[in-house]
């Protein structure tokens, strides 16, 4: 590999905070959205009469209660199953401290609901045929209930019943649950620093984008995987235009500044090392996976560098073809976007 660009330049440039002035007015678009605090009801069930309590929970949260127990907790629902009853009771006892912490942090959910509602207005504006979720369902799952989505990892989900918010992974980067020895084993600092409440609207919009356009880029050449990520991030920019780029990309401010100031050098690294059309997962995993850094680019670089480059390619394309609708952008072949963007940063 050739010299890494993050060691070639120490100059950083200022970057915009994405305070777009060209965002459409969506204030007149009506959105039906209600916040349901599932975790409060779940931790309040009468464990001495569990079958009746679970029936009441399923009645209030049809669909989601079963998903939570079976798919998040991994507990099969069976009124006569003593092992299931024991597991539910144990989870409630073991996670009482997490419940207490999230109750203090999320006494109200108005701000998050407001931001998500506004994001859904943009979803309806750009994707009018998409049935926007009508429920925000907060829950507390296991601390290891984390999955890698197309552009980042988190504990929030989208289900047929609504947007699910896993509060256990939004208690703030300094929470003792993440900084403890066990917490650090589960989540290194570069991941746990994203466990802030202000990532909730971002994760919700990312889940909606993945629902609209499921990721099918795995196994494709690096440049195509980059552009797939770039398309998602470009759409995300339009759905939450006032949200800072650091939250959308998951980079620190210094990492983002470094990417911007070294964009041409980063790109040349991929070109000179013949990586753009490389599809071998072992050869490109450093660029398409989350990590504290991209080792080939230096200690100051962010992991998941494909997010940044892919976003820049798509932005270059959209600057040349601004009339392209977001629905059409998502369907465009990566090769066409790459060729027509004529992306070649200095």
Describe the overall structure.
50% of the residues lie in helices and 6% in strands. The chain has 2 domains: 5-22 and 216-341, no CATH class; 31-212, no CATH class. It is an alpha/beta fold and 346 residues long. A hairpin with a 4-residue loop joins strand 3 and strand 4.
What would you say about this model in short?
The protein is α/β, with parallel strands linked by helices. It has helices spanning 38-42, 50-60, 64-72, 82-94, 96-105, 110-126, 176-179, 181-186, 189-192, 200-212, 222-239, 245-249, 253-261, 263-272, 281-288, 305-320, 326-331, 334-341, and strands at 34-37, 135-139, 147-148, 153-154, 157-159, 162-166. Strands 1-2-6-5 form a four-stranded mixed sheet. It has a two-stranded antiparallel sheet with strand order 3-4.
Q: The biggest beta sheet, please?
A: 4 strands, mixed
- What average pLDDT do the residues reach? 92
Q: Strand percentage, roughly? A: 5-15%
Number of strands: 6
Task: Note the main attributes of this structure.
alpha/beta, 2 domains, about 350 residues, four-stranded mixed beta sheet
